[in-house]
Structure formats: C-alpha cells, structure tokens
Specification:
Strand content: 25-35%
Helix content: 25-40%
Oligomer: single chain
Radius of gyration: 20 Å
CATH superfamily of the largest domain: Ribonuclease Z/Hydroxyacylglutathione hydrolase-like
Order of helices and strands: EEEEHEHEEEEEEHEHEHEEHEEEHEHE
CATH architecture of the largest domain: 4-Layer Sandwich
C-alpha cells in the first residue's frame, strides 16, 4: 500500500511507511501497542516474531507481561510520553491518552506528511494532536444515541454511594475489564474510600502497576482467591468472573459504558450497573476534533459500531473531511 494512514480490514492502524499500531500487518517493521487491551493487541505474537521493534509506553509493556504477552528485551522499545524515536526516517512519538494506565496516542512525522492515531481516549485529559495531515480517531461511542446525559464523576459518585449504602450488609463486588478496574480503584482512594480492597491475582498485579502510574497508593489491598468474605470489603474481579460469583452474598456492581439509563441502574436481584466508560462520548469526540483540526479524519470502523454515521455527523458539525476506515466497516 502507499504510505499514509488507514485502518486495515484486520484492525491494524497503518501510519507512514513503517508503522502498524494495534494490529499486525505484514511487512511493517515497527509495531506500536497503544495500551494493553485485547482488541489493541491483535496479532501481537506475529508482530513479535516479524517486526524489528515493539513500541509502547513502559507501563503498557509491564501490563502486557502480566497478561501473558511477552516481548523479548531486544525487540522491546519502551517509549515514555513525549519521547520520540526514529526508524527509517520516520519519527514516532507517544502522547498521553486518558483511557487506562499507560494508554498512548501515536504521532508519526515523515518528510511526506504527519499522521496521528488517538487510540481509545476520553476527555478531559487527552491532549489533541493538532494540525495533522491525517488523524485516525476512535469512535466506540460515536453514535449520537449513545451520548450519555451525565459525566464520569456522576458514575463515580453513584459507585461511592452504593459502597457506603451496602458495605455493612456484606461485601461489595465490582466487575469490570482490565484497566477500568484499576482506574476505579485509584479514583475511589483519591475520593477517600478507605475500605479494604481485594482483587483476583491478575487484577491485583495490574493494580500495582496502575498505582505507580497514577501515583495513588491503594493500601489496604490484598489478593482474593475465592475464599468466603464478609462485610466492609470491596472485591474487584474481571467481568468474566461475574457469573461465577454473582450468587455470593453482597451487592454486585458491573462497570459498563453501555448503561444508558442513569449513572447507576438496577440490573437484577442485588445487581447494579454503573455507567462508567473509558471511551469518549460523541460530544468529547467533537471537542477533541474542534481543537485538533486535521486535514483528514479517519474514523476507526474496525472498532467503532457506527463509523459512517459518526463520520457524517462530524462532517456536518465541524466542516472537516471525515471518512470511515476501512470503508466497509459500517
């Protein structure tokens, strides 16, 4: 393919002539991992075998190791935020993105143009990549019907209220995905929630990394291995554990960005959904692009559900040229 920017049909974000981000693409010597979520680690094993270097924020590389994705030291290129490296005349810079610990945006500068990729992000806390030739943007919640009427802080406040209300009746179980759980643990500590935390082994190891990233101590915190637990404990488990533990005594809270009824809503007997998302709402996407003003916007249609609808909305709202990529993904 010609050098530039696009999203491949396999989910790789191609930037310049050398770089593939968040997906494997044959012949690309540089693989960037923006963060340690499975849909952004597509084909990482093949990339490790075939690429020259694997670029990621140091915290992301640590989290990948915990999740079982090993990058040999001779291929790992830990790149802190705002630091750069050059490969074959192309300059790669990772810029902070507010999503999970270690999340990065990618900026690629070449003699032929400048290209960027937001990866997953939310606002505030993600500085826009400004004035690029092409910007690939995440739009997981790009459908106007998915615009929540409340903010993240409302969801956190709802979670704190649930904990305070039910903690003395039994444990409060909190389920979510990697990264989101660790962010919420830090948010609760910052807001003065001091109850003892427990977490399954992988969630706990990731929490220790996230604690350093956020510079927020999580103590008192310990490992949960399935034992009986009583009151005044908050237990954090991966979402896949919900069906195994939902019948245990206590209140069970699921962290999900797909809850659109309210910041917190009843979802079953002693099951509550809390509408906590790590993705930008459509309003936040507009805010980002209104500041960034690239010449061309490509909406990631591999990961977004309504890329064409999002593209048309952004064109009408901002007067930018916006296309879904790949074009079939809508």
């Amino acid at each position: 393919m010609a050098c530039g920017a696009m999203v491949s049909r396999g989910g790789a974000v191609l930037l310049g002539c050398t770089t593939s981000a968040d997906g494997y693409y044959r012949g690309r010597p540089v693989r960037v991992v923006t963060h340690a979520h499975r849909d952004h680690l597509l084909g990482i094993e093949r990339s490790v075998r075939e690429s020259v270097i694997i670029v990621a924020n140091p915290y992301t590389l640590e989290m990948m190791e915990v999740l079982g994705y090993r990058v040999p030291p001779e291929k790992a290129a830990p790149l802190p935020y705002r630091a750069s490296l050059e490969y074959d005349g192309e300059r790669i810079t990772l810029v902070e993105a507010r999503h999970i610990a270690g999340s990065s945006q990618v900026l690629l500068e070449t003699s032929q143009g400048s290209y960027g990729y937001t990866s997953d992000f939310k606002m505030p806390g993600t500085p826009p990549l400004k004035g690029l030739d092409v910007l690939v943007i995440d739009a997981t919640y790009g459908d106007p019907a998915l615009q929540r009427r409340w903010g993240e802080w409302d969801a956190i406040a709802a979670l704190i209220e649930i904990i305070e209300r039910f903690i003395r009746e039994g444990p409060v179980w909190v389920y979510g995905y990697h990264g989101k759980l660790q962010e919420v643990m830090a948010q609760l500590r910052v807001r003065g929630v001091g109850y003892h935390f427990l977490a399954d082994p992988i969630t706990l190891r990731l929490a220790e990394i996230a604690s350093r990233f956020y510079n927020v101590p999580l103590d008192p915190v310990g490992m949960f291995q399935g034992e009986e637990v009583y009151d005044s404990i908050v237990i954090f488990l991966h979402s896949t554990r919900f069906s195994s533990y939902r019948r245990r005594p206590g209140v069970h809270v699921r962290l999900t960005g797909w809850e659109m009824r309210a910041p917190a809503a009843l979802a079953g007997n002693r099951v509550i959904n809390v509408s906590f998302s790590d993705h930008a709402t459509l309003r936040e996407i507009v805010e980002y692009l209104d500041d960034a003003r690239p010449r061309l916007v490509l909406v990631d249609a591999y990961r977004g559900r309504s890329a064409m609808l999002t593209a048309r909305y952004l064109e009408r709202t901002l007067g930018l040229k916006v296309l879904p990529s790949p074009p079939h993904g809508f």
